[in-house]
Amino acid sequence: MPYFFHSPDFSNGPSGVRTSESDATTMSPAPLPPARRFEVSRKAPSSPITIFPLQRRFAVVQVDPVAMVMMAGLGRDVEALAAAKALVTKKYLVYLESGIDLPMPQSQWCRYRVNPVATTLREECPEWGASPDMVLPIPPNTAHLRVPSPFVDVKDPGYVFKFPFKNCFFWVDSDTELRIRVRGGDAGYDDRKAVALAFRPHLRLRGSFGPDLARMSDFLSQPRDKPATHPPTAASDGTPTMPPNPHYDAMVGRLPRLLDGLEGSDNRPANDAHHDEASSTSDSQPSSMPPPVEELLSLDLFGWLPDPATKYIPLVNCWLELEEHLSESTIPSPVGLWTEQQRIGAIINAAIERRNAALAATQPPPVPVSPGETLPQATSEPPGKMSGP
């Protein structure tokens, strides 16, 4: 219901009370125009064009290796740029489950947690108890459905989820993390062209993975002679590739375990606030914040803290127009996405090693110390002051 505003009536003077005829002559204002009617909308119109895609949408993504090398600060490494340009990447179908960062106006990308979409049963991973039947069909596909379909809205019987491809699955425990690039202006993401999942089915989707995740957990909890491992496989060119199940760790930036420590790091959590130059100051200066506040800030709820693992998270171009970029027969396996991430990670690590070696070569050699010789001790006296009587 609109609101109405009318101009006040000052025909009886500013106070609304006429005291005398003379007052009426001197105090009456000039005639006012007829009352104007203004309507105030309760809800401001929202544009369907956004700089980042909304969550609960299906999307097509493609990794940009050159941009990953550039944003890792390795743009001057000719060898790394050449390797990135030579890397051929595919377009993959994913479901944007949720956004992770709170983007700022200057943000170039935003992290999302996504579920890759496949057209085959799940790749088997015996080391983690993952079997091919651990899938969830996406309507209109109903094959291998072992739990109530989450793609219905029990409170809205008229809701129908429409998906353009007929033979697609979610793989259980295959969710991963991507950085989706910003697109401003008229080139933004047109949500009118998106295939979206309603809110209540979206909530039920994660719960549908529960029984299979419990099976995997029971398998991993069983005693074995040797601990469960996650061995890498190799591509035809000898490059290590990502196994069928990358097992991202949410507390370590969801970086694949195979990439942990490749920079000589000490495997600190990615959301640790004391990285790089920050560690040199924070360790020596006492904090003025209460411990609960420090602990809350260390969680990096908005994704603003520097994170060395970020450069390994695939940076992708994204499209919401599914059928313009993929067809039923061209949807690739999610394993290819993880393999591409592994190869780009190898390129980045090699460039970092070359950079570190070049820096080490410019450092002066250490001064040799003869046996029994001690280095001079620094005096505690201020400069210019003589010690002694």
UniProtKB/TrEMBL annotation:
Region annotation (Disordered) ranges: 1-34, 216-293, 361-389
Polar residues biased stretches: 9-28
Biased composition (Basic and acidic residues): 265-278
Protein name per UniProt: Uncharacterized protein
UniProt organism field: Ganoderma sinense ZZ0214-1
Domain of life: Eukaryota
